[in-house]
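The freezer alarm interrupted the setup, so I double-checked each line after restarting. Inputs confirmed:
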Amino acid sequence: MSTTTTTPQTSGTVAPQAVNHRKPSMGSHLLGVAAWVIGLLFVSPVLWMILTSFHKEADAATNPPSLFAPLSVDGYKSFFSAGPWPPILNSVTASVVSTVLVLLLAFPAAYALSIRPVRKWTDVLFFFLSTKFLPIVAGLLPIYLFAQKVHMLDNIWLLAIFYTVMNLPIAIWMLRSFLAEVPVEMLEAAQVDGANLITTLRKIIAPVVMPGISSAALICFIFSWNELLFARVLTGTRAETAPVFLTGFVTSQGLFLAKVCAASLVVSLPVLIAGFAAQDKLVQGLSMGAVR
Amino acid sequence: MTTTTTKAPDAKATAAASKALQRSGDWARRAPLLPALILVIVATQLPFVVTIVSSFMRWNAYYPDKRAFAGLANFGTVLSDPDARHAIWITVLLTVSVVLISLLLGLGIALLLDRKFMGQGIVRTMMITPFLIVPVAAALLWKHAIYNPEYGLLNGVLKGVFGNGAPQVDWIGSHPLMSVIVAIVWQWTPFMMLILLAGLQSRPMDVVEAARMDGASSWQIFTNMTLPHLRQYIELAGLLGTIYVVQNFDHVFTITSGGLGTANLPYYIYQTFYTAHDYGLASAAGVIVVILTMIVATVALRTVFSLFKEETR
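Predicted 3D structure, all chains:
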């Protein structure tokens, strides 16, 4: 599937327009309007979150909503004074370290499943996929007990290793589907010319695989950044991550809506930026490289 | 990114290449694979063995001295526990409804976005946004800023439109499961839409154009050409969506704290383990989840296998 389908993500392709728009009709305008309405409907909770985060607490919690209340950064102020930096830093550590580890481990593995395949490589590939079907929650207790035994509870590095394992199968599948497209003739030619492994990797393999590597990195980063259940169980005060920090944010009595919206927005910001910047990579990553 | 690489000659060439490379031993080939393979086996299979063993033990963290072999007692307890049975039912209901609704919505929106119209790119970006909000943050947003009966957006809009006599609904209180489902559907519809849109854009347009020339109606083209082409994308999106949604914890945990009959299996296990500290019971529940998932996965893996079969031949 991955080999025969490529999708121009930009809207600049000629074919669909040629078919769908011989002449713009009333109906097609209506469909365009419908798309806008649905798009706005889906994005409205986020717009509401942004607006609320810039309101004063008293204006945020009114009914009917005070749309035009004066803007304020109080929500952000109280979020940043609640000490969010250690958890955010922990999240950065766990996500970045695990993403790097995933790539370092997945690339050689994908190489051994495509360019110079081991025997029974399909079995190995499907073994990796099957681990994604194991409900992660079934490993909760043993991993907790293990962490307790080796005194690594509340340690961000353990979480980084756990996220590495969690995302490794996805990255292997994705990188393999890209490596499988490296033209074999070029590999042979390089070998005939006596090119060493480094040269082959750099000149022939890298250009084909680079998009796959960035997709894999994007999706591993997002999944690690978002993870809540294990972070909550395995960390305490020192190693808590940003999502865990968020869950502890609503304990106070009284008004907290603007603060929560500001916090949610700040914590989602890295994912929003990365996702918007690389929309087509998102599709590749989510489908484990099956859809380009 | 070329469109028409066919697999068959590649496979042949790979075979030839592997012959040429055969003098280096099998172990040289395996070496790059081993670190990843060993790590995944150690980190996913060993814990599962531990889970199986502890599911047969009486083991509560509060009474560590009383740890003993319990036979099938934990399984008996889980399967006769109304909460656990309810959690199994909720897991199935939640997963099926979220995946089906978001697939249908995703398909409709993908079809709308596949056409050229003004601001197409902007609408596409708007549609992706829900997926890029951290799940806990999204769940907090729905719970406090949207569903809240006093100052949430939904009741606010009702009052804004219908005035002071407008009905004010306690959304989470009176429709707990629906509230959770809507919040998850909101996050996963973009995912389905993205994969289906990629599928739509990979249609061979010349064939569609030819059919249109021959007088096929839009509906005929949709049912006879577009849908069959989309089938594998629908299956892929449904499969991947199922893998992720069946494990959902964040929304249940945040929106209802598993209360009001919305606890799914991941939440049930978390609770047995984290609050009740009954390790034996949590493990038995874990084993049951795995068995349930394995049944689904066997069917699902077969689907994936057919999706990728041109590569694995």
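Quick read of the result. The mean pLDDT of chain B is 82.
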